[in-house]
Amino acid sequence: MPAITADTLTLPRIAAATTADTERPVRSITTGPSGYEGEGFPVVRAFGGVSAADLDPFVHMDQMGEIEYQPGEPRGTDWHPHRGFETVTYMIDGRFAHQDSHGGGGLITDGATQWMTAGSGILHIETPPAELVESGGLFHGVQLWVNLPSKDKFASPRYQSIEGRAVTLLSSEDGGALVRVIAGDIDGQRGPGQTHTPITLAHATVAPGARLDLPWDRGYNALVYVLSGRGAVGPVGHPIQQGQLAVLGPGDRITVAATSRQDGNRPALEVLLLGGRPLREPVVQYGPFVMNSKAEVLQALEDFNAGRFGSLPANALTPHRVR
Predict the structure, then answer these.
(1) pTM here?
(2) How far apart are CA 67 and CA 140, in angstroms?
(3) Gap between the Cα atoms of 86 and 150, Å rounded
(4) Contact indicator for 292, 300 with CB cutoff of 8 Å
(5) Going by C-beta distance under 8 Å and a sequence separation of 6 or more, which residues neighbour residue 315?
(6) Does 124 count as an annotated binding residue?
(7) In this structure, are residues 117 and 157 in contact, taking their beta carbons and an 8 Å threshold?
(8) pLDDT: is 123 or 4 the higher one?
(9) Is 126 annotated among the ligand-binding residues?
């Protein structure tokens, strides 16, 4: 798992809890069901079985892989539309090529994030580059959908390429955990992602036997998703493992601990920490459209069919196939 690494002893340390701080309790732990996305790549539906109210302002999240593809097997998506939200694609292992109808695009690789504000409407493609399709290889990433408030549903599309080296790196108080802040604020340290909806998104690596204790905005919800490994979450130490999501209750801090023994091919506990200020607005989702009403969804379908989401660029990517 080569997402950006660093010597935790040289990084800023997250401040210890005060006597006035409270740990967020665990409200639920769910196991995401497996499925397939796009042209047939395997995913874990991380939010499966969790209420929309607990997720708000998030709508959907897939863990893509972790899978070791054979030559000719890698798959992605073909061109498709979005409106009304932001897609956040974070690559941990492997490569994904992105292109959209508003000029955004590039190669997402180890530790990089591509943040696309669909807003008023956009077409895009995410596909493995030809060389990865030909060779096969390890593929592992996450795609998160962040809802936009009604006032920003029709914002101009925007594209952000966040290279792995640009994320903010922090260490736990004892140096046993590395935290990569992609967006939002942790202990006064901000990540590079620019968001319409106030959120925090971070990827933490917790060494076997170590514990991560970090402050979290009381006005945000709090979710912990295990990408890899085994550990415990919350003040009571609820067990949690790969593919599971913990929804936390109110409080000032999130606590996650890694078991002292991890699987041989998973040397540490890898978790995504995410939360945001709930929008508390109606959500009507139909496929790639996330709006506030059925009428807005129908308008999105009409606008897409009328070609109002932009045009494919002259050098449009297409999915590669081994002949």
Answers:
(1) 0.95
(2) 7
(3) 13
(4) no
(5) none
(6) yes
(7) yes
(8) 123
(9) yes
Phi, psi dihedral angles at 102 (to 5 degrees) = -115, 20
Cα gap 209→152, rounded to integer Å: 43
Alpha helices for the chain (secondary structure H): 52-55, 130-135, 294-305
From the list 273, 279, 241, 219, the residue with the least C-alpha distance to 52 is 279
What does the pLDDT look like over 163-195, one tens digit per residue? 999 999 999 999 999 999 999 999 999 999 999
For the stretch 276-301, pLDDT in tens is 999 999 999 999 999 999 999 999 99
Do 180 and 6 touch, CB atoms closer than 8 A?
no
C-beta separation of 23 from 234 below 8 A: yes
Structure tokens at 110: 């180890």
Question: What whole-number distance in Å separates Cα of residue 204 and Cα of residue 242?
Answer: 14
Q: How far apart are CA 282 and CA 17, in angstroms?
A: 36
* 82 known member of a binding site: yes
How far apart are the C-alpha atoms of 180 and 183, rounded to whole Å? Answer: 9
Question: What's at 29, amino acid-wise?
Answer: I
Q: What's the chain's average pLDDT? A: 94
Closest to 86 in 3D by CA, of 128, 127, 114: 114
Q: What is the CA radius of gyration of the chain?
A: 19
At residue 252, the pLDDT reads: 97
Binning pLDDT at 50, 70 and 90, where does residue 2 land? low
**What pLDDT is recorded for position 194?**
94
> Residues near 184 by Cβ (< 8 Å), separated by ≥ 6?
190, 191, 193, 195, 198, 199, 200, 201, 202, 276
Tell me the domains of the chain and their CATH numbers: 8-302 (2.60.120.10)
Residue 140 assigned to a binding site: no
